[in-house]
Amino acid sequence: MTPVLANTPVIETERLALRAPAAADWPAWRAFLASPRSDFIRAEDYDEGKAWRAFGHVIGHWVLRGFGMFVFTLRGADDALGMAGPWYPAGWTEREIGWTLWSEAAEGKGYAREAATAARDHAFSVLGWTTAVSYIHPENARSIALADRLGAAPDPAAGHPFDRPTLVYRHPAPKVPA
Q: What are the phi and psi torsion angles at 70 (to 5°)?
């Protein structure tokens, strides 16, 4: 028996399926954290033990908060391409919409935008969020470009939970039907 997170939503977009993280995602997560692709989200050099604890954090967030980052895959496949979703660990200033693209082969195809859009829509419509930010390292040009494409704008007045330079992008409030 392979343990799974129960009662977690699955979101489908035109090309992707967003689901809760699973034990089978560990190798892809570990490879991502060991690569330079993760430089902007890691505070320290790669260490397998820290990668393991970070993956436990991703899974545990679902248990503790009832929501968390979705692993996204191509519809009909189960190979993890990355993560996107609502994120709010203890001690954080605000609720975040975060994303990471684990696979270099998945770059440039719009998957991160598609996943982040679906996850943000879920946070606003299902979770009832009225605001969200994305915390981005100032040198992470790809994430800054994605935040711009998502309609988020820099919010220099917003705080952040990090002891390193961080840009805070505020996402547009959800449109309320008239």
A: -90, 135
Q: SS3 letters for 8-46?
A: CCCEECCCEEEECCCHHHHHHHHHHHHCHHHCCCCCCCC
pTM higher than 0.85: yes
Q: CA 114 to CA 102: how far, in whole Å?
A: 15
Burial of 66 (0-12, 13-18, 19+ CB in 10 A): exposed
| pLDDT, position 4 | 76
58/23 Cα distance (integer angstroms) = 11
pLDDT digits (tens, 9 = 90+) for 17-31: 999 999 999 999 999
Q: Which domains does the chain have, with CATH numbers?
A: 11-170 (3.40.630.30)
Percent of the chain with pLDDT over 90: 77
Structure tokens at 106: 């998945």
